[in-house]
Fold each of these.
Amino acid sequence: MLKYLMLYEDRGIEIEYAESQYVWDSNGRKYLDMHTGHGVAFLGHRNPHIVNTIVDQMSKVMTLSTSFRVKIREEMLEVLSKVVPDRYEYVYLLNSGSEAVEFALKISRKVTGRKKIIYFTNSFHGRTFGALSVTANQKYRKGFEPLLPETMMLRYNDLSEIDKAVDEQTAAVILELIQGEGGINVASEEFVSELRRRTMDVGAILIIDEIQTGFGRTGSIWLSEQYGVYPDILLAGKAIGGGFPVSVIFMPHDIGVKIERGSHGSTYGGNPLACAAVKASTEVLINDSVPQKAYEKGNMFFELLRRELKDIRIVREIRGAGLMIGIDLRIEPTNIIKELQNEGILALKSGTTVLRLLPPYVITNIDIEYAVKVIARTIASQISS
């Protein structure tokens, strides 16, 4: 009998059913899901419109090389164009966030003819070799070195290093506006503005990784919109497929036109089911005003958390945007996550000391009020223990 290689910690429950903001285990117990598969189920588990669109496409064509045209791809592009800034003319679909990062790094070196790639402390961009080379945490890198050469790590939110480090030898700078795995650290407006200015000055490519922050979670379709910054390459994933594995890379004309056939490829990338998932997810995003709802519910969540947690001394800070929430603690949050699960709430960790909440946009006000009370009680209980 084969054994599944468990590369994530087993949470000790078997999930049998999922719908909207809830999942049920094999014992019939219901959980409020604020883990959402590391943020994938932002549009809710088994969103009916997304499921129906995928099932409809399955009855026609399930898999097809992008060498062949298919109607659903054109339909996806038409709808997706409504939520992407006008400067982006080219789009390419892959299967995971790491793959999108890999392609972005390849594009940067190909287009600029340079080698150096800059990333930041506490960054996380994936676990494949290229993505891992721009991921800061040593626990992910250990045992896999040497990684890509000519990468350079700078301090996140530190303006003092930018002018010296980002130079005429730099191919790309890759940045998360909120570091999802690294601690829900939020980039300052000054930091992002300086990176945009400097990359333009030296002709380097600015890659913004919105695989976790994008597609409505942070209260706007793209978090970069809130900064007034348009990167040279924009990466999306997780929520954009509504639960189907897909990632997207967006490029302007001056970059996309330089990518030759054969420069990259993917057996499954851009398959008809992925196109159907992205089309349907985008329609949900537009038709149900998802970013606005994430903004409003996020504001409520932050307000209640700050009120309920303000006197709990092991709470350092509450930060994030929209429905991407981090509670920075003075202790490691593993026990809190376990206790929350026992109370019927699924959450996850970010960085070393941050309790991370990634609820779907369909979470209700009643859910939020309940979750805040349980979270406050659970965190407070750790003081005496």
Amino acid sequence: MYSGVIFILPELVIAVMACFILIFDLFVSSNKRYIIYYLAQGSFLFILFILSYSMKVPKCILFDGAFVFDSFSIFLKFLLILIAFFVFLYSKKYLFLIDLFKSEYFVLCLLSILGMMILISSGDFITFYLGLELLSLPLYSLIIMNKNYISSEAAMKFFIMGSIASGLFLFGVSMVYGLTGLIELKGINYLITEGDIFSQIGILYGLVFIFAGLVFKFGAVPFHMWVPDVYEGSPIPVTLFIGTVPKIAALGMAYRLLSDTFSYVTNEIEFLCIISGVLSLFVGNIFALTQSNIKRLLGYSAIAHVGFIFFAFVGSNSNNFSIAMFYVFVYVFSSLGAFGVVMALSSKLKEAQFIFNFNGVGLIYPVFGIVMAIFLFSLAGIPPTAGFYAKFFVLKNLISYGYIELVIFILLLSVIGAYYYLKIIKAMFFNVSDNGVEILGVSNFAFLLILLNGAFILYVGMFPSYILQLCSL
């Protein structure tokens, strides 16, 4: 018999640690703030241990259906905390260099992670919205921490777009609640499946508005305008955090909506996913072609990858969500490594923001250049990296549902999209740097982790079955 505390213990640890760090910072001198870093990392390790133990715990629904504890939520939380752990490891030295090694950074990250974990386990729309807002609000403050004009513009654009998306989401929820009288996700799904409530057009309108909130969190078209600006305007550690960890929470959001709430509305969901996927893939790849700023390039690249994630949702349900999970898994680790390399080549005075900053990296540091090439090949979907199988499984799934023309269109855009990744590789191995290249932004340990990250991407690309099986939980 398990105590109910074990189910919410990860969230409690994050919440308590965020409050503790905020208070602890008042009593610690500036030269001992490294203790805060180890407190945050220690809490992550403790949560990973709890989640590993929780794998044996049966599915449970708490707080009158508001909180769902199942194998899906455990896996996503484990992956989320693991990625956050690596983000902090990669960022430690660079946070010192740019004077952002402050308790506020860690507290805001922890609060955002708490929102993500709540979102992943939400069982009704109230908990869902609570997690959604707690995820977003700290990110607005993180973006503006370095207090410059570009960051202010990016944060304001993100805030305005987020407010609009939240309003649309709440409007959709109000329509669904007005027709069903329920806020529980499973209860709404039951009424749609078993009753004739689906015949009412209001449910479809509600679905469209709720889907808009999902589109924003992924950064898909038409709610994509904030992505390149936020990627460019944020400090690299914040870009690293925003570009990886929230994608896992967005996947959890998609699962709760598409599988737990509207699983019966298959055709309508497929239509919305395909439209958003096509637009995101087209806009992301076309606009990335003209970018010289590597952070904006990776921002548009993220929009294109979100298009693939939406294609993976086609035909997905509670028993078949492994393709989308595998794609997000591979994308997050590939982006983690790519932004880690960008951070490594940055210094206190200059970020490696532009493609010419990578000139000669592969010639001066061959191993480092090869690892970056692996990350870029994975993002482009070129074998033998993990990104190839991630895209292959998505395309195979679409073919099984008869979307042959769509697959041809995706392949053409993917070939076009590979060009801007190859520009970076060309700069690393065929251009000569005028000012030399130094690895200053990461510690030696973080440098080793980036190399292991690249090896892991290569390993998954050659032996994807274990990770795919893991994503099928």
Amino acid sequence: MTISADDSFQSVTTALAEGYMIAYPDAKIEVKNTKEDIAFLNLLNKKSNIIVMSRDLSAKEIAEYEKQIDLPFQPAKFAADAVLFVVPKESSLNSISYEDIQKELLSEDKKLIFDGTNSSNLNFVAQKFGKLPSSLNYSIISGNQNVVEQLSKYQDKIGVVSLNTFSRPYSKEAEALRAKVKVLAIEKNGKTYEPNAENLRNMTYPFTRVLYFLTSDGTFGMANGFIRYSCTQLGQIVVAKEGLQKFNLYSREVQMY
């Protein structure tokens, strides 16, 4: 089975795939790094069994999905991620306002650096401001990790990356990436929000996004088995270990004797 996932959330998708293959050793899953818009086209053309999305589909896209796939549109939500705005560690900047981000997206200075066109980060931010990605001004460094690693060369720029790029709390690689940048708090309506667990859980961080699966498989085969696994308690434990907010919360009962 093939899963198409944007670079922004490939880590959590790969972790879920590995967890599923441990639970079901006969299963073979390949996670392909695919830009979000391209992944959706791959699903419509049935080149992928499952894709991961973060932005809302338009009514036209939903209609096309239901026409091409011949299934009702039922997004399987499994995690809350976030789009982060980061600066070099040495920067004096600690926060940025929601309005200033919008201004920068319309400025010729191209101060914001995204990980590429057709990417989930760009799509989501554009959708937040009610804009088409093609109408925005920005710079590009290909790949979330590369944005973080190369940002120090551009002291006056702001990188735009996913939380999942370096959210894994027990990963030395993620720790090294976190050490390279400072995450900016977002000011909106007189309040300041950081992308912490509470603000993701309450969806109060302005750029919180919900990750969800779409599949082209209408049977009870491996694709839907993987989706069920990801959304139930075992999969949600994997999501938490990735440093993201679980979408489905399960009560924990403790019996004391």
